[in-house]
Amino acid sequence: MLFGQEHVKRYIETDGEEGHDWEGTTVAILTTKGRKSGQPRSTPLIYQPYGDAYLVVASKGGADKHPLWYVNLQADPEVEFQIKGDRFKARARTATAEERPDMWRTMAATWPAYDEYVTKTDREIPVVVIERA
């Protein structure tokens, strides 16, 4: 995560005026439903537009386990996504094997550390496609 819940709080309060532009890239807020608690869980994530959709990466800095937000959306792909003041319902899915190479290049271009993260883990780091509902 970036700045964790403080980042989420400031982003939501300011419609992304604080928190959207971060370290030379762009951040959105992804809200999933906790698979155990059923409670909303919001996470700041680097994103990029891709056609009519948006992309995020389930990297967790190259950790061996998927981030919890990714596990949550696997259980329930109905999510909320916020870019600046635009908060909308969406459906999340993992990029297919055919889609992934070009999508990965798009994300690594905005955050080159993604290419570093893949060297730290044996898991394939998922690229997630967010499509408006």
From TrEMBL:
Reaction(s) catalysed (UniProt annotation): oxidized coenzyme F420-(gamma-L-Glu)(n) + a quinol + H(+) = reduced coenzyme F420-(gamma-L-Glu)(n) + a quinone
NCBIfam families in the cross-refs: hi_GC_TIGR00026
Domain of life: Bacteria
SUPFAM superfamilies given in the database record: FMN-binding split barrel
Pfam families in the record: F420H2_quin_red
Cross-referenced InterPro entries: F420H2_quin_Rdtase, Split_barrel_FMN-bd
MF term (GO), any: coenzyme F420 binding
Organism whose genome encodes this protein: Microbispora bryophytorum
GO cellular component terms attached to this protein's record: plasma membrane
Record protein name field: Nitroreductase
Family to which this protein belongs: Belongs to the F420H(2)-dependent quinone reductase family.
Gene3D superfamilies in alphabetical order: Electron Transport, Fmn-binding Protein, Chain A (2.30.110.10)
